[in-house]
Description:
The protein contains nine helices and four strands. By secondary structure, it is mostly helical.
Amino acid sequence: xxxxxxxxxxxxxxxxxxxxxxxxxxxxxxxxxxxxxxxxxxxxxxxxxxxxxxxxxxxxxxxxxxxxxxxxxxxxxxxxxxxxxxxxxxxxxxxxxxxxxxxxxxxxxxxxxxxxxxxxxxxxxxxxxxxxxxxxxxxxxxxxxxxxxxxxxxxxxxxxx
Length: 161
């Protein structure tokens, strides 16, 4: 049965009822405006899913991420990338081990993996790569770069070195 939704009354309320008896009503014109394909699915009941619970972990992660962003922390402090990890390596073997690990976790594409391993495998490749990427990250790098001593406490230093 195929409905022509343009002929239906746009002020008509659509009621959706779940298995626990909760009913929610929507104006059809609002749904048509914002979700034109959804109205077909709801009225035909051809596609439906049962929602048994809500994952609050996702909401918590979003809150934590927003707090970090509100504190103006640079991205490398809370989300280091491949280059950030490689910049801590002192030899090719360590860098390749990091790339292997990130590849296993699907945090790096095959193309990037091949590209980085090719660069690192060249004569002096790791040293050149690290220098071109901002230099070696020695212990205490983040403290030196982002924090400065204040009389009362440490404050974020967002100035570039």
